[in-house]
Amino acid sequence: xxxxxxxxxxxxxxxxxxxxxxxxxxxxxxxxxxxxxxxxxxxxxxxxxxxxxxxxxxxxxxxxxxxxxxxxxxxxxxxxxxxxxxxxxxxxxxxxxxxxxxxxxxxxxxxxxxxxxxxxxxxxxxxxxxxxxxxxxxxxxxxx
Length: 144
Description:
The protein is α/β, with parallel strands linked by helices and about 140 residues long. Helix content is about 35%, strand content about 25%. The chain has five helices and six strands. Strands 1, 2, 3, 4, 5 and 6 form a six-stranded mixed beta sheet that branches. Helix 1 links the parallel strand 1 and strand 2.
């Protein structure tokens, strides 16, 4: 089963999470939506990941969802966000992902994150604030 993991990031947290997912999921292809246009018709499963700022997921992923809404309904879907306030996860997902896509998804999660001004410096722990255990649990839903 071919899995496509599409992401948008500003501080790098979402990219770190996507890399861990790709290591965990066989036949997983990574796509940075800001630099590539994915051919989603070639994949059975799609994971969308985005950072959050001011309660909104990053615009490239919002735009991708709008443009591909109907086609996404026919895929095995998972959504994750990187936000420093995990208690707000449900509200953020409800505001940013249409109800029919949420209902069809096999999983939705927050992998943690950090504030833009507090992103880890190069040479330090790039996974500080990231819940690696949640990433591994999430990835298990796409290994079948």
